[in-house]
TrEMBL record:
Taxon lineage: Eukaryota, Fungi, Dikarya, Ascomycota, Pezizomycotina
Segments forming a coiled coil: none
Residue spans crossing the bilayer: 12-35, 55-75, 82-103, 123-147
Statement: the UniProt record of this protein carries the keyword Transmembrane: yes
Domain of life where this protein originates: Eukaryota
The protein's name: MARVEL domain-containing protein
Entry annotated with the keyword Transmembrane helix: yes
Keyword tags: Membrane, Transmembrane, Transmembrane helix
Length: 199
C-alpha cells in the first residue's frame, strides 16, 4: 500500500505546529515531575498512591509520547483531530479533578493530604490548564487543515493507479503524485484527459 501524501504545509504553519508540539512535550515532562514528587514520596513511605495522581502521570506520559510522534511523523488530518480531541478530553478531566481539589479555598479533602505541597499542586493545576489550551489549539490546527487546507482531487489514471493532486495555496504550479511512484504536473494530466476525450 502506498504511503499517504503528507500535507503540503507552509513554513509558518510548520513552525507553529513544531513550537506547539515542543511546548506540549516540555510541559508534559514538567507536569509529570510535579505529580511524580508525591508518588515518589508515597513509594518511600509505603503508602498507597491515590488514583488521581496515577491518572495525572498517565495523561502526562501519553501527551509527551503523542506530541513527540507528531513532531516526526505526518498524520492525516482526521487522525490528528481525533487524537488531539481525545487528549483535550483527558486534560479537561485532569484540570477538573485537580482544580476542584487545589484551586478552591476548601482543602479539607483527604486527597489534599496526599501531597507534600499545596502550592506546588496549584502550580501543577495551572500548567494542566495551559496544557489543555495547547491541545485545543493543536486540535484547532487539525480542523483548520482539514477544512481550509489543501484541495485534494482523486482520480484513476489509465494504468489503474490512484492519484492525489495537491493544489498549493497561493501557488501557480499544481503538482500531483501518482501513488505508483510516478510524478506528473496537473497540466500534463489535464492535457492527457483532454486528448482522450478528443478535445
Amino acid at each position: 500500500m502506498a504511503k499517504p501524501i503528507p500535507p503540503n504545509r507552509g513554513a509558518r504553519t510548520l513552525i507553529i505546529h513544531a513550537v506547539l508540539r515542543i511546548l506540549q512535550i516540555t510541559l508534559a515532562i514538567i507536569i509529570a515531575a510535579l505529580y511524580g514528587i508525591d508518588l515518589a514520596h508515597a513509594t518511600k513511605s509505603h503508602t498507597r498512591a491515590i488514583p488521581s495522581w496515577v491518572y495525572a502521570e498517565f495523561v502526562a506520559a501519553v501527551s509527551a509520547i503523542t506530541s513527540l510522534i507528531y513532531v516526526f511523523v505526518f498524520v492525516r488530518y482526521i487522525v490528528w483531530i481525533l487524537l488531539d480531541g481525545l487528549m483535550v478530553v483527558l486534560w479537561v478531566a485532569q484540570v477538573g479533578v485537580f482544580g476542584s481539589l487545589f484551586i478552591s479555598n476548601d482543602t479539607s479533602s483527604g486527597d489534599v493530604d496526599f501531597t507534600l505541597s499545596v502550592l506546588r499542586m496549584r502550580v501543577a493545576v495551572g500548567l494542566d490548564l495551559v496544557m489543555m489550551v495547547l491541545w485545543v489549539l493543536t486540535a484547532g490546527l487539525g480542523v483548520e487543515g482539514c477544512v481550509w487546507g489543501r484541495k485534494l482531487v482523486s482520480r484513476k489514471d489509465g494504468g489503474g493507479c490512484g492519484m492525489e493532486v495537491i493544489v498549493a495555496d497561493g501557488g501557480d504550479v499544481e503538482t500531483g503524485e501518482i501513488l505508483c511512484g510516478e510524478k506528473e504536473t496537473l497540466a500534463t494530466v489535464v492535457e492527457e484527459e483532454d486528448e482522450g476525450k478528443g478535445v
